Structures are given as C-alpha cells and as structure tokens.
Amino acid sequence: MPTAIRKALAVAICLAMLAAWPAPARAGDRVWTRGGPEGGAVDALAISPNFAVDQTLFAGTNGGGVFKTTDGGATWVEARNGLTNLTVYALGISPAFASDGLILAGTNYSGLFRSTDGGGSWAQLPSPLNSGEIRAIAFSPAFATDRTLYVSRGSTDALFRSTDGGATWTDIRANIGSVSVGAVALSPAFASDNTLIAATSAGIYKSTNRGNSWAAINSGLTTTDIRSLAFSPAYATDQTMFAGTGSSGIFRSTNGGASWTAINNGHTPQKDVGSIVVSPNFAADRTLFTGCPSWQGFKSTNGGDSWTMYQFNIDWLDEGNRINPDVWAMAISPAYASDQTLFVGTFGTGVLKSTDGGATWSIMRRGMMAQRMTALAVSPNFAADRTVYSASGGPGIFASTDGGLTWHNRNAQTFSLLDTYALAISPNFASDRTLFAGNHMGMGSGRNGIARTTDGGLSWS
Q: pLDDT for 174-190, tens place per residue?
C-alpha cells in the first residue's frame, strides 16, 4: 500500500478515535491508560545464571525495549529506564549476575547499553559502542575474575573485546579480515583454553588466544551463511561444537572445528537455524534444541544424530488460532537437568515456556506490552458497541468489544494476516460487519494485497 495512502488512513483513524472515545472518569485533562494485546516480537533472551533461585529472565523486544521477570516468566515488567532505543537485538548477562547485576543490551542502531542494577536503569556506552547494530554479546565464563567479554557490531563489521568489564574496548576484527561478524561463542573452558569461535560472512573462524589471531575452520561446511554457534558444555573433553546455517541446516564438529558434518536427520526444513541451546547436562542427556525464525524449532536427545520438531500446541489468546511459531531467541535453564525448563522468544506472541523439555508449552506474556501495533480502526458506533480493531506487525489483527480492556485475535487459521499495515472499517459496520485489511507480507501465501471480512473478523477472504 502506498505510503501516502497509509498515512492518510492513519490520520483518519486517529481522528475517528478522538471523536468517538468517551471522556475519562475524572474531570480535567484527558488521561491515557496503556493497554492492548500482550506479547510482542522477542528478539533476545538472557537467563540468570542463578535462575533456579532468582527465577530471573530478560527479554529484548522489537520496539518495546527490555522486559524482566523474577517469577519464571509468569509476569513481566518494563526494564527500560534510560534505554533510548527500544529495539533490542541482543542481550548478555554476567556470569556473576547475582553479585554484579550486570546486563548488556544491544540495539539496532544505537549501539550498546549497560545496566549494573539488574535492569533497573541503563546507560549508553561511549564511543566506539554508542552507535550501530549490535549482533552478539558474549561473556567469558570466568568474567568475575578475567573481566573479559566480546561484542560484534554489524553496521561497521567490527568485533570488540574488553578485558576490564566493558570500560574500554579494542576492535579485534582486523585479525580475522574484511568480514562481517554475527554470532560469537566462547568455550566453557575459556579460562584455560582461551578458545572462541565467530560466525562471519566468510564462514567460521576460531581463536585459541582470546582473539589475538584467528584461523578459518570451514572444512565440511557446504555454506558460509552461519546464523548461530554453540559449544558442548563438555567441550574440554568431547571437543564438540554446533553451527546453525541459513540454508543448509545444522552442522556438528567433534574435533574442535577441524571438520564439520551435516546432522539434519529429521531437521526439515533445513533453513534459518537462528538459535542453538545445549543442555548443561549434555554429556549425560545429549540434548540440544534449535530455533528457527520461520519454522519453530527442533529437539535432539542423541547429540544431533536425529531431530523431532517441538510443537506449540497452545492457542493464541482465546480464539482457537495457533500462535505465530517463529522462534527468534532461546534460553535454557542452567538447572535443566532437574527443572527441564526452556524459554523461546517468538515473533509476536512474546515468550513461551516449557517445563517438560519442550513437550508442552505455555504463553508467558502477562505485563509484556511490546506488540508492534501498525494500524487501528474504530467502529463508527463505538459509543454503543465499544468495538476497536488493531493490527500488529506479527500475529495479525485483534478486536476489542469493551473499549480496549480485553482483546481477541481475529486471524482465521486459513488466512494468516501477518504484517498488516492498514485497516479500514465500513461506515455501516453495525449492519454489514465489514472491515478491510492491507497486508504487507502476503496473507500467508507470499502475496501482498487487501483482505475483507464481512463478519467482524471471524473469517477473511
């Protein structure tokens, strides 16, 4: 839909809302109450190293900033005081979080922000990390003593290292070459083996001296489009690491990266492996998970030899429509061996939680107001029917019939209205129940266009 039309429609909708909305209960200035569908597009998750005790998890969202839970995801609160850019692509939490309260947030164009009070307040880091898109944050497992961490910045193809807890930074990307750096992962035995790996535009590079020098380790890989990296927690003995790709599934190395083998048995389709999390008890349970922005994700209990897709068999809100399955972020409990807890961040639904190793899931979004709302349409008879529609950039269209207090999804499963950017409601809505939606991503079929409902959103064509 042309930008001019979209803007004109937005203005018309806003004017209609102002005209139709009732006066607030108290006299004086008009007041605003925050509301709308809960959830949002979650691009990053960071779990407390002491999760078994503090039940703390952070979620970085696309447009809503950072949210924090201290009850295992049951409820969320905003944690964005001082965060001037609310699009958060990466989160990193200190291994010594219980004592230092340190967490870092990487944004899409404002660089890196730092909190030393558990997300209570944030401050933007100075140059050179006060601009650009932060793609990855990786702490040394021994951060409490060595104060070492790494940050990749995509906008300028930089890879930074700090050895003083983030006070000063050195760009070490030149040691790799003229490549962009995405994911970064450190060996669990980093304190002794000094090993880290980086996903670059030229494949995977490995350093055994904390980033002072690098070597390509691409033997056996069929692509250089690497999206995610992970070490086995028992790397010191099993020398195992994993790499997720954009188009060729997942690869495994059992010799420290000297060679790689595709392990895609059951991992179909083989694309967009954007997240990998490995059980802390991998040496015994051989369990790992992948998350795919387009295809949900997979679980293996034999070290990657075979995979099964985990299913989100839950409803979105209360309308019987399945949730948006796209997984953009993952976090596994440090106590997974006993609590079997796993979190995923989705595009639109917010955070999902499993406490049985991925067999069943629950939506954990109470208080997470991070939906990216793109359009509103108010009933011409709002004073009587209290009806308003909203569209989001992820899960689709919502309706409220109580003036915005509660919301219900209006996405028929057979007509997925993803990325709806415009809504228009019939002047005769009370009788014809007609609403139009302009779609950007193609209504689930790869086509852009306009959809119509004549039953208030229960079905679309």
A: 778 778 888 999 999 99
- Greatest Cα pair distance in the chain: 73
CATH architecture for the domain at 39-364: 7 Propeller (2.130)
Total Cβ atoms within 10 A of residue 459: 13
The pTM for the full model equals 0.80
- Please, are residues 134 and 112 in contact by the beta-carbon 8 Å criterion? yes
How many CB atoms lie under 10 A from the CB of residue 4?
8
> pLDDT, tens digit, for every residue of 4-63?
444 444 444 444 444 444 444 443 455 655 555 566 688 999 999 999 999 999 999 888
- Tokens 């922000």 locate to 113
Task: Return the higher-pLDDT residue of 112 and 313.
Answer: 112
> Domain segments of the chain: what residues?
3-17+372-453, 39-364
Pairing of strands 123-124, 134-139: unpaired
For 56, residues 6+ apart whose C-beta sits below 8 A from its C-beta are 47, 48, 50, 68, 69, 70, 97, 118
| CB-neighbour burial class of residue 461 (10 A; exposed 0-12, middle 13-18, buried 19+) | exposed
> Three-state SS for 438?
strand
